[in-house]
Amino acid sequence: MALKSNNRIAVITGGASGIGFAIAKKFVENSIHVILIGRDKTRLKLACETLGELADFVGCDLTRISDLPVVVKGIVEKHRKIDILVNNAGMHLKKAIDEVTDEEYQKVILTNQTAMFCLTREVTKVMQKQSMGVVLNISSMASQYGIPNVIAYTASKSAIEGMTRAMAVELAHHGIRVNCLAPGFIKTNMSTLAMEKDPERKKKVISRTPLGRFGKPEEVADAALFLVSGSASFITGVVLPVDGGNSIGF
Ligand code: NDP
To answer: Which of 122-131, 182-191, 223-232 has the lowest mean pLDDT?
Structure first.
């Protein structure tokens, strides 16, 4: 659907499932036009049907980084601007450090970190011309403290938090804010897969989460809406845990 003049335009990577879909739904409920990016076109189409006329999608594998300038150009040609970028897409890899191959390590870094950089570079070029924009990155508890058996994921998510601060400082004078959410353990397909195989870890997660449960994707979406809204107009460069206290639990 074409742009209504008063709608803000948000690009959400991985917006057809889990946390990304919850963010897309929250944005649409608040009259933000969402463009979902992912590889699975059937799921993207279904997500857009569920979200209604304020949702659109672009099927794209973010690891094909040379395609990303064209993807962003296409979005701007169709929608004229990009107000918000949510870098949510990501992959997990749970393996002991000595079993992670070079290829596996590089794939996680490419998906979670390099692609996020390349897409953000292209989108913030557009935002600089607009003299406004908001970028929201998604890191993880793996960047808040040491978790065993997730070395590549931890490297990628720690980089995202560092890049959030670097981008926030570099882009502030263009009117662009850059923030990051660090979700705790949120019930989605990704986390269910990781936890099902490891009941001990599941027990540990709950025992060190003061609020005593897994989070819901909608709870991350509430924080996302706040950080991209005018209510957060003086907030940039922060990493906000949405974790039921997991990162400070004893
Ligand atoms: P999901 O597996 O539901 O979502 C991951 C999304 O990323 C999918 O929609 C997938 O779409 C997209 N994606 C993955 N690789 C690519 C790619 N190469 N190109 C385009 N899209 C891609 O997981 P969650 O919702 O749980 O995770 C969302 C984010 O939140 C991730 O960054 C994750 O690390 C982070 N997170 C999650 C936590 C949790 O407990 N669930 C905790 C902390 C952080 P498709 O398959 O169509 O490509």
So the answer is: 182-191
* Token digits of residue 241: 């845990």
3-class secondary structure, 145: coil
Among 11, 12, 13, 17, name the best residue to mutate to test ligand 1's pocket (greatest count of ligand atoms within 8 A of Cβ).
17
* DSSP class per residue in 93-135: --B-GGG--HHHHHHHHIIIIIHHHHHHHHHHHHHHHHT-EEE
Given the CA of residue 18, which atom of ligand 1 is nearest to it? 25
The overall average pLDDT reported for the chain is 96
Q: Which residues are catalytic?
A: 153
Supply the pTM of this predicted model.
0.97
Q: Name which residue leads in pLDDT, 195 or 145.
A: 145
Any idea which of 29-33, 88-92, 190-194, 213-217 has the lowest mean pLDDT? 190-194
CA angle 33, 45, 74 (to 5 degrees): 55
- Higher-pLDDT residue of 190, 73: 73
Residue that the structure tokens 């460069």 belong to? 237
State the distance between the two ends of the chain, measured CA to CA, in whole angstroms. Answer: 49
Distance 58 CA to ligand 1 centre (A): 16
Domain covering 8-186+219-242 assigned CATH 3.30.470.20 in the classification: no
Closest to 143 measured CA to CA, from 165, 124, 126, 121: 165
Tell me the backbone φ, ψ of residue 185, rounded to 5 degrees: -95, 110
- For the stretch 85-108, pLDDT in tens is 999 999 999 999 999 999 999 999
Question: How far is CA 48 from each of CA 6, 35, 77, 225, rounded to the nearest angstrom?
Answer: 20, 9, 20, 19
Nearest to 58 by CA among 66, 70, 50: 70
